[in-house]
Amino acid sequence: MILLSSSVGAQTQNNDYYAAKSDSKLAQLLHNVEEFHLQLGIDQIKSRQYGTARANFDFILRYFPNHPRALPIMTELCRIYKDSQCNAEAYLDRAIKVNDGNASIYLIKGHYLQRFGNLDEAIDNYKKSLDINPNSANAHYNLGLAYLTQNQNARANEHAQKAYALGLTLPGLRNKLEAAGAWHQVELKPASEDGSPGNIVQPLPAGDASGETRREPLAEKADGSK
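Structure (tokenized):
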């Protein structure tokens, strides 16, 4: 049994979340970590117990740095809970080191950077995410928002068209492009044979800087992995 009280002495293991799919021991460890810390941390955030919530998510990320639910929640928590131990970029960098072939990590990092106005770095991370998973609707959408903020309207429209073609229905980006006179439908080629969209990475359920990030249930899995 893994308990929060043991987190003080817990040593960083840096397990790959995605390796648990094919490793029974890792799968059991992941189950234990999630069972005792994931929902508890989410509930603590809802009741604004940010300090204990941070400890729970830190515990999860000690074992699985690229956990697709705990990581975006932690980055958002670090933004709203000012604590010297809450270094979002350190968590993100460690996640990338564990598995740099996972699209969702770059999407999470891009979203984090975009919220702080670091648009060039955010765009670079969205591009890395799309290099791995060209069918991530959320990556196209957020990349479109970033380009629009930089007044690169043609590029913003291109990625908006791809996001909506992949099934995303959030109207914010389209509305902004229409207001700028930059919404133009273009002929798209599917990024893969089946043309299926990627899943959505969900950050902490709170308003973001753009007000446009698509919100999905917390149970939603991350997109694009290798």
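The chain is about 55% helix and 0% strand. The radius of gyration is 18 Å.
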